[in-house]
Design a protein that fits this description.
By secondary structure, the chain is of the alpha/beta class. 36% of the residues lie in helices and 12% in strands.
Length: 355
Amino acid sequence: MGLEKGRGATHNHESARFNLPAHEADGDWLDALESIDGPLPRRRTEVTIEHPRTIITRNASPDIGFDRSINAYRGCEHGCIYCFARPSHAYHDLSPGLDFETRLFAKPDAAALLRTELGKRNYTVAPIAMGTNTDPYQPIEKDWGITRQILEVLVETRHPTFITTKSDRILRDIDLLSDLARDNLVAVMISVTSLDPQVARTLEPRAPHPQKRLEAIAQLAEAGIPVTANMSPIIPAINDHEIERIVARVAMAGARDCNYILVRLPHEVAPLFRAWLDAHHPDRAAKVMAIINDMRGGRDNDPAFGSRMRGQGVWADLIRTRFRRARRQAGFGDDRLTLRTDLFCPPQGAQIRLL
């Protein structure tokens, strides 16, 4: 199985969960053709326009601190091999493998839909999360600008938002973020998975360099925008040795806190991750999976609420202890940021609410 330069998945893993046809993956037959005809052009990113009827997604998960989110895009060009959102591509009869990072969907109506939903009489205010499924600042945001359009609506309506990204492209919207931050209406989380460029390049092939993420933390903090860091995910025997160093570096950059998530391998992510290990770390692939299985109750993934985020067993306890100690040494406290909800004003033209 050949590796596709600049992509995370080593192949197009098909899914049978949504009646997808089982057929040989593109990467496999491309390898065969290359052996006859020579190298073929690299897989290009394709973007399809999607017109959803609504843009705010609701959830009732006890594991996360928000009940609503917006995703401007489906799929993510960053190509993070561990991404738990990969299986969602199967809903479109596409592969959670290479298709997830090359066949993307954009929602240009997102801002207009948001204005409509925020203007409804029965709308109640709570922070909207962005970046929960795919990165709002992945490379195609440069051309589509959908995330910025969403932010403009949030600025207009004084609506609180949490943003998670691993891209320094967020700095292009620092004007809007600064506006929201003045009223305590925004918090940003930057994901820093590794400080080693080689590790980052294979784990997250099209995400910005780790140093750019540290610089983004510093610039956001300097602009008065609350920014935290997230080591997401921690993968045993791949990046867990960097825990202390990452926590110290993000603290130096100006992050107000640092958290972590253990690697999760739901559905098709598990075989994709195993293939990635075999391609990039064959010397330790068995060890990595053995530790992951130990943390997940003997399985590749634990889907249960609560334990799916924390893990279990000796390895999970060790990582938790190390991380807590690193946070204390870096000077992080236990204060939690709470965004304001009392400044919300429905979009101009929306029906006046009855008080």
